[in-house]
Amino acid sequence: xxxxxxxxxxxxxxxxxxxxxxxxxxxxxxxxxxxxxxxxxxxxxxxxxxxxxxxxxxxxxxxxxxxxxxxxxxxxxxxxxxxxxxxxxxxxxxxxxxxxxxxxxxxxxxxxxxxxxxxxxxxxxxxxxxxxxxxxxxxxxxxxxxxxxxxxxxxxxxxxxxxxxxxxxxxxxxxxxxxxxxxxxxxxxxxxxxxxxxxxxxxxxxxxxxxxxxxxxxxxxxxxxxxxxxxxxxxxxxxxxxxxxxxxxxxxxxxxxxxxxxxxxxxxxxxxxxxxxxxxxxxxxxxxxxxxxxxxxxxxxxxxxxxxxxxxxxxxxxxxxxxxxxxxxxxxxxx
Length: 335
Known about the structure:
- With 335 residues, the chain is an alpha/beta fold.
- The protein is built from 16 helices and ten strands.
């Protein structure tokens, strides 16, 4: 409590006239995964960095990339797959990741036990519902290759993002692809018992890629290095705080969207903290730790999925020069 009060008092010392205006686009609606951003905003973590921020919900990672590349937003948070695709297809609009938040990818295929699907190979001869641009669908060929699925035996049904879990729940599809953090909790929200949900995580089958992160336009980073550093520091602090006190993060989320199911969103946040952010690598070296060799393999995997002939170089996709010292990026001790 004392540290929070000091943070807020420090925020009051920042002159609004000198504060840098920053527009941030999230990847999706205000849910558990977005709660740390609400916490950072309401606890004055951006103000301490001399930033006046406006944070808006997103409509999918691909749309967030477009928002930032167009200049409508300064900072984006989302899956890095669409960002790599943009860098390969339109190098002049390439974005630069400045913080890797999710050390493990949330991509997965999901089915229900009543379908009889127990393993990836069981998806053959079945219908999978997913948006056409869904990262899980785009990277499915890599998942299929790793698990021996004959993709010619899989039928795809294109649906709107908000409909896929409902279709699976009603039996109109045999499986879906997407983020584990969306699929599992949206299904439980519909009344599906957790034990009836079959999750096939790509990461468990050799698709060892990073998940979501923070990115900006290279020109913006070059012109506003202190602002970018401030955003990165605030976002890291907010995620550390959300790990220590998830209830506080969900309370902040509730202020952004009063209609959320607080209990469900706290469970979603817990999954993100435990399964996507907390790994052996981040326990040892902190949030934002990136292995160059793994990053290169990730880019190659994404390039293969999108049929990109010339993958962008890793240093055009990610930089660590805006990160705070490792000591400031470590996970809370209790974790």
